[in-house]
Write a structure and sequence with these properties.
The protein contains 21 helices and 5 strands. The protein is mostly helical. A hairpin with a 2-residue loop joins strand 2 and strand 3. The two termini are about 15 Å apart. About 35% of the residues are buried.
Length: about 450
């Protein structure tokens, strides 16, 4: 019956999926952000993150603001969703890197659907472990914070700190795994990748604050809007940019027939690593700033050079992003394996000998386009500090409009638009076969 409904009205199916995505992603998830952890003074914690009660150093505050944006303000609210989807993202990156370095996992990845399910299972186990560790660190840090005479726990929680820490670890971990479940349901029954949708909703929750303080000043507001449009246009160009390598298939003659001779292209994305290099570089730059603030290095003025907002800080951060981009692509993009697939299928690059010459040719192309993509990612990531000075923006607005905020939002929206277009196109030519274009459920018409 559901398949029949889909054939008769694809718009109805799209509306249903949009509604499921809205209810789970906006209503359920955003309501959970405002549920605080029992025993925490949320107002005091919000003041610390906003800089009112700080003392932890500019770099640490910048990292907290960055994490707070990805979690939709959950950290400032002392929410049960404080960890957000970050434990799953960390676990996915770790498993992905391990897959390309551990032969057993690499062989498992090549087993098709069975191997993919097994790897997803390992990723969820690692997500639970990371969530337990991060929640324990967060709970202990909250219980021991006392800078400036400010205590983040209520008297009831302070009366039994050990019990409160245990309770908070369970609550925060459960909240993180609940977000993962919400993301899975959006992937299966909604539109787009659930994890990306959750992150996009969290970032867009910061949108009103990005334009705060400009209501009475029209000129800076118009300038800010123009800058946003320019950044969005640049992101679309880079995200959609592809370097295509022409491939040809070898021809062979059997009897009176000629086989092969097909032509195709190998698409190489300009921004192959997406935002992962920024995720890697963020904690490293915070660690470097803390080391530069040590008494020994502070004597030579390194703390001023590396301080947040200074040119040295932006330069080192950009260098780290470029370096991590090359590192990530070198780990995940196996040229030898790719050329072996070419050899098995009989494809080759015109004018290039198969084997090592093909590897070197594609490697040189990847090196050049990676430099362009990494440079763009670095420029986008250091924009918050420049925007903050040029437009007098507050911290959350600068973090949103620069860094990876707009990059993620625009990328997810482009992905959703592509999936909707594929869904409608598949319905036009294949009828009910369009069902698989938006979700990963086995039965596309299955109701939520």
């Amino acid at each position: 019956m559901a398949q029949q409904d889909l054939v008769e009205s694809p718009v109805k199916e799209l509306v249903r999926r949009f509604l499921i995505t809205f209810v789970l992603g906006v209503v359920v998830y955003r309501l959970g952000v405002f549920i605080p952890i029992p025993g925490v003074n949320a107002d005091a914690l919000k003041s610390i993150i906003d800089g009112g009660l700080g003392g932890d150093g500019n770099a640490l505050k910048a990292m907290l603001a960055y994490a707070n944006m990805f979690n939709g303000g959950a950290i400032a609210q002392a929410s049960i969703f404080g960890l957000g989807i970050t434990p799953y993202i960390s676990a996915s990156i770790i498993i992905q890197l391990m897959t390309f370095s551990i032969p057993a996992l690499k062989a498992l990845q090549k087993e098709g659907e069975t191997g993919r399910r097994k790897i997803n299972q390992y990723t969820r186990y690692l997500t639970l472990l990371i969530a337990l560790v991060q929640s324990a660190v967060a709970a202990i840090a909250l219980s021991r914070y006392s800078a400036g005479g400010t205590v983040l726990l209520t008297p009831e929680a302070l009366s039994n700190t050990a019990m409160w820490v245990t309770q908070s670890v369970l609550v925060i971990t459960t909240g993180s795994m609940l977000i993962l479940w919400i993301a899975d349901q959006i992937t299966r029954f909604g539109i787009g990748n659930g994890v990306s949708i959750v992150i996009m909703i969290s970032i867009m929750a910061y949108l009103p604050g990005a334009f705060g303080g400009h209501a009475s000043d029209l000129a800076p507001l118009l300038g800010l809007i123009i800058v946003c449009l320019i950044i969005i246009a640049a992101i679309i160009v880079v995200v959609q940019a592809v370097r295509r390598v022409n491939l040809e298939q070898q021809r062979r003659v059997q009897g009176n027939r000629v086989y092969g001779g097909a032509q195709t292209t190998l698409p190489l994305k300009l921004n192959q690593a997406n935002v992962i290099p920024v995720i890697f570089a963020q904690p490293v730059i915070v660690l470097l700033v803390m080391l530069a603030a040590s008494p020994l290095l502070a004597k030579i003025g390194l703390d001023q050079f590396m301080g947040y907002g200074n040119p040295g800080h932006r330069l080192i951060f950009a260098i780290l992003i470029v370096a991590f981009t090359y590192f990530y692509i070198s780990i995940t993009f196996d040229l030898n394996d790719l050329t072996n697939h070419f050899k098995q299928a009989g494809f080759f690059v015109r004018g290039i000998k198969p084997g090592k010459n093909t590897v070197d040719f594609i490697g040189s192309i990847m090196t050049r386009i990676t430099f362009v993509g990494a440079t763009f990612l670095a420029i986008i990531s250091i924009l918050p500090e420049s925007l903050a000075g040029a437009f007098g923006m507050q911290g959350q607005g600068a973090v949103l409009l620069g860094g990876t905020g707009l990059l993620i939002v625009v990328g997810v929206l482009l992905d959703v638009m592509q999936k909707v277009g594929s869904f409608m196109l598949a319905h036009k030519y294949g009828g009910a076969g369009a069902a698989g274009g938006l979700g990963s459920g086995k039965k596309s018409g299955k109701r939520f």
